[in-house]
Design a protein that fits this description.
Blueprint (H helix, E strand, L loop, with lengths): L4 H8 L3 H21 L4 H17 L13 H28 L4 H11 L4 H8 L3 H12 L4 H8 L3 H19 L5
Helix pairs in contact: 1-2, 2-3, 2-4, 3-4, 5-9, 6-9, 7-8, 7-9, 8-9
Length: about 180
């Protein structure tokens, strides 16, 4: 007889293989919940993974609704994570606008700080790989954030963050005195 989700979660307290079986039952549904929740395709699998990590951490708190199913419990965790995902995206975008962090202004500052171009290339090479790639794609190739996100396998919000952090790091490297 196939164990219920509730039985798997009870068993998972001492046997991780039981949780793996629960994962197998719900992984595709978790991906679907993320997609229907408006999560960017590049982040869907990450959100599903985060869902199961959270379920693992809270497996002792699961309460059987009477039918042995964990679907509603897992879906509730997914809804919470999706809401947090969208909240973070809005906060990042709002903060960038509030601080007046326009891309053109930041690029102009960085280019003015680099006299002959040599320092800038060295500074870009010293950035974390995702930031260096994002800065090159945005500044040199003039790609939109959606395309950068696609190439970096991340969300457009994360792509913006990589560009913003990269430009800030370049500005700090080229002129540590600048605020």
């Amino acid at each position: 007889m196939t164990p219920t989700d509730a039985e798997l979660l009870r068993t998972a307290r001492r046997d991780a293989d039981a949780f793996a079986e629960l994962y197998d039952r719900y992984a595709q549904r978790a991906v679907g919940w993320a997609r229907r929740g408006g999560v960017a395709e590049a982040d869907v699998v990450d959100l599903a993974a985060e869902l199961f990590a959270e379920a693992w951490r809270s497996r002792r708190r699961f309460r059987d609704p009477g039918d042995g199913s964990a679907a509603a419990w897992l879906h509730g965790i997914a809804r919470h994570l999706i809401a947090r995902y969208h909240r973070r995206a809005r906060v990042d975008d709002s903060a960038r606008r509030r601080l007046g962090m326009s891309l053109d202004y930041a690029v102009e500052q960085v280019v003015q700080l680099d006299g002959d171009g040599g320092e800038l290339e060295l500074a870009v090479a010293g950035l974390p790989p995702a930031q260096a790639t994002a800065v090159r794609l945005r500044i040199v190739d003039e790609l939109p954030y959606d395309e950068i996100a696609s190439r970096l396998s991340c969300t457009p919000v994360t792509a913006r963050k990589h560009v913003s952090l990269g430009l800030r790091a370049l500005r700090n490297t080229l002129d540590p005195e600048m605020p």
